[in-house]
Amino acid sequence: MAITVKQHSFKREIPNWVCQDVRLYLDHIEGGVPIRALARDKGVHASTVLRKVRKTESRRDDPLVDNVLLNLGRLRRVQGKTPVNPDEVLLDMSDAPPDEITLKRDAIRILRALMQPGAVLAVMADVQTAVVVCESPDGRPRQMASVERPVAEAMALQNWITCTPQGRVSRYYINQKGRVALNKFLAEKESEKATFNDVSTHRKGAGLSGANTKGANLHVVAGGGGKHRTIGAESPLQVLARRRDKSGATYLSHDLLMVGERLRMDFEVAQMDGQGIPSWEAIMQASAASKSAKTKDPRQYQARLRLENAMRFLGPELGDIALITCCHEQGMEHTEKTLHMPARSGKYVLRIALNMLARHFENDGDEAHNMIS
Length: 373
Description:
By secondary structure, this protein is of the alpha+beta class. Helices cover 55% and strands 9% of the residues. The chain has 14 helices and five strands.
């Protein structure tokens, strides 16, 4: 359904994350502003503006960049028009470029996933969801994360990912600018967590009520707490899968590793990271609301239901350790401290949880985890 500017006036604004070079391109191509006028306005030579316009035009061979420029161009054409021609076709909700907060939130997830060896962002023509896939040790591709196409388009326009078109499927890899952006975002996130923890500590010292203290602690768990994992480093599950016991066998089998990855995938697709839903209890409390208020993305809604069903099967004790370790990717030491468990007991409880999840997934089927639907 097309959304008119009158109904959603914010759709007319070009997002803040769009760089100056692209804005110059849109002003000239879509707004019809002469090169010399743009140069006078920016206080630069006309050849400088022309070079930037040509550089942006040359990037349209990338399918994601081409599509986001089309959508931004439509925004630029209607920008400042009052009243708006009701016959003018504007952006669909599914085509609208993301705002700055959404782009940052989803870019952290996707860029982190792309840091894994062999990971690529696969984009198919006419498919609204892009997925990060990586080859498993058995040679089969496995999905690590997914993102809405407009966010992937914005990441391409920001030049955080590089394209290698191959037929109907375009493959994107993280580049140096993407690594720099990820480091910046994670540093900002850690700074925000540190500030929040300082404020929480101060409020507790000032006599924060028991109910509010509990809520604050849950938020800290959601943020991860503890030490942040180095970008590109192994996840806690991968570390356990690599370690061997006294008999020489790996502590976690490949099948159990895939069970944990499948749970994390549903967590990522459901986009629950950063929403303050860290615990089994909170997810169960939010279950009724999620059933009565379906999201506009059926994949996101179904992933949330699968996650809720898995948590319901595990129960609170095993559910919390699976969430913290598999989904929030926190190490065993931090998990044991958060859940008040004896030292060096977390890995045993986690293995029990993963074995139970494996039985649940066997009964639940695997048809919902296709790479691209």
